[in-house]
Automatic annotation (TrEMBL):
Parts forming coiled coils: none
Designated name of the protein: Cytochrome P450
Alphabetic keyword roster: Glycoprotein, Heme, Iron, Membrane, Metal-binding, Monooxygenase, Oxidoreductase, Transmembrane, Transmembrane helix
Pfam families: p450 (PF00067)
Localization: Membrane
Taxonomic classification: Eukaryota, Fungi, Dikarya, Basidiomycota, Agaricomycotina
Membrane topology, as annotated: Single-pass membrane protein
GO annotation, cellular component aspect: membrane
Transmembrane residue ranges: 6-22
Keyword Glycosyltransferase: no
Residues annotated to bind heme: 437
Length: 513
């Protein structure tokens, strides 16, 4: 009987063994980049830590080099640990490295497929970039200056009134600037319904990143598991997330459409795109046009709000930890600006030390340590190594910025003065090639103006305990896609009673312009 069973399965077994032998011989003939030895079936899945993988990849640099090949189940991955490798592949060869992986969890189950960051490379991607470029190119962002200047005034007012809620004020500032530009909406607080929509979608997406949910991206067949099955919790969660994501993209868009119909809409990115795509009226848009406009506007809001908030929180943490840096930046500010006005963009070139401080903030805590993943669209050869089509490619920005300077774990803005040729973090934190963040000019200006205004108007220092002793915060970051600082103690107070009057005068100027 056993012989009969073996005989009936002999052909499938023979085919399977032949396939394994073919793969083994093929892999020997094909020289893949170096990397840790994979295990059978699961590959390197167990060697990639679930927390701070960028640090592990950075440590592997000494053992495997700056181009590391991994395999998670049947999905090949490439980690780029150096600027040279990232530029060679993601920039110089961007024509075949500009696609995005098809994340089953995010795209198929949670509805992020319309987001510009997740759109596959092709005509639709190029259309999204064209839409964004019209508002956020280097010349056009100057027209957005009044929005940023107005929200800076509100930010300083908020901090004066409630200094214990600085992180929430940063969140509101970041949301308000981009919400006004994308949807024409005025955000007065973090309780704004449109802001809450985005926060809910983002937090639910992060919370849904369980091991089972992540696994579906490497074993796509898992998406067909019935929702009632034991391992299908991620699918049940995905239904909730998809509803939140759909609301985040649709409700602000529908609000703008309604305001346009009633003649009460403020000019914004969404209204301009609707007018350009439907000159005969808002009700004549095609479904494709609507999906693209929703995707562009929603992506710009979600991306700009979180990263700006992250950098500003990191800035305050760094100033609390390094009071001598803050005092030096403030002395420079006083020599250029004085105590009777706020800094403007025209002052930027006259504040070189502040520029170094902001660079060091972005290097010390990279907002998105592994950047956004790319996908190779065709087989490629690099340094005599074969890189197979479909490989997920990630630039380890953490490694790139930490390995380009001495004593990388120290916060030292002076390093950029001592070495003027040191890599500027802004050249890498926004990504590479055709996928480089199209809103980088707007984001950079928002961060600079906020940091400069804080230095000009506030005293940032360490909090004190009940005994009057200074509390030195722990250097800790939340391990998520965007690397926010963990909550920390601080003290922030206005430099003088004149600050409120200066802010009132500036608001009158901006609102009257």
């Amino acid at each position: 009987m056993l012989r009969d069973i073996l005989s009936s399965y002999s052909l499938p077994i023979l085919i399977f063994l032949t396939y394994l032998a073919y793969r083994e011989l093929s892999s020997r003939r094909t020289r893949l980049p170096p990397g840790p030895k994979p295990l059978l079936i699961i590959g390197n899945a167990l060697q990639i830590p679930s927390t701070s993988p960028q640090e592990t990849f950075t440590k592997w640099l000494d053992e495997y080099g700056d181009v590391i090949y991994l395999q998670v189940f049947q999905q090949p991955m490439l980690i780029l640990n150096s600027l040279e490798a990232a530029q060679d592949l993601l920039h110089t060869r961007s024509s075949i490295y500009s696609d995005r992986p098809n994340f089953v969890l995010l795209n198929d189950l949670m509805g992020w497929h319309n987001a510009s960051t997740h759109v596959r490379y092709g005509p639709r991607f190029r259309r999204h970039r064209r839409f964004i470029h019209q508002t956020f190119n280097q010349r056009s962002v100057e027209d957005l200056r009044p929005v940023q200047e107005k929200e800076i005034c509100y930010l300083i007012q908020d901090i004066i009134n409630k200094p214990e809620e600085v992180d929430q004020h940063f969140q509101r500032f970041a949301a308000a600037t981009i919400m006004k530009v994308t949807y024409g909406a005025d955000v007065k607080s973090n309780d704004d319904p449109l802001v809450q929509l985005a926060h809910r979608a983002g937090s639910l997406t992060i919370q849904s990143g369980t091991p089972a949910a992540t696994l579906v991206d490497y074993i796509p067949v898992m998406k067909y598991i019935p929702t009632w099955a034991p391992l299908a919790g991620f699918k049940r969660n995905a239904v909730i997330v998809k509803e939140a994501v759909d609301s985040m993209f649709s409700i602000p868009y529908e609000t703008v459409k309604s305001q346009m119909a009633s003649g009460t809409c403020s000019p914004c990115l969404t209204s301009r795109l609707i007018e350009a795509c439907s000159p005969d009226g808002v009700h004549c848009l095609s479904r494709e046009d609507e999906e693209d406009i929703k995707g562009v506007a929603g992506t710009m809001y979600a991306a700009a709000e979180d990263t700006t908030h992250c950098v500003l929180s990191t800035f305050v943490l760094a100033m609390v930890l390094h009071p001598q840096v803050f005092k030096k930046a403030q002395a420079e500010m006083d020599s250029v600006i004085g105590l009777d006005r706020l800094p403007t963009f025209e002052d930027r070139s006259s504040l070189p030390y502040l520029e170094c401080v902001i660079k060091e903030v972005c290097r010390w805590n990279v907002p998105i340590p592994l950047g956004m993943p790319h996908r190779l669209m065709d087989d490629d050869v690099y340094r005599n190594y074969h890189i197979p089509k479909g490989t997920t490619v990630m630039a380890n920005i953490h490694s790139i910025l930490h390995n380009n300077c001495p004593q990388p774990h120290l916060f030292r803005p002076e390093r950029y003065i001592e070495d003027p040729h040191l890599l500027d973090p802004k050249d890498v934190i926004f990504g590479f090639g055709r996928r480089r963040c199209p809103g980088r000019h707007f984001g950079d200006r928002s961060i600079w103006l906020a940091a400069a205004s804080l230095v000009c108007t506030m005293v940032i220092s360490r909090a004190k305990d009940d005994a009057g002793d200074e509390i030195i915060p722990e250097i800790a970051f939340i391990d998520a896609f965007v690397h926010h600082p963990a909550e920390f103690p601080y003290s922030i107070t206005p430099r003088s009673e004149k600050i409120s009057m200066i802010i009132d005068q500036e608001l009158l100027r901006v609102l009257g312009a």
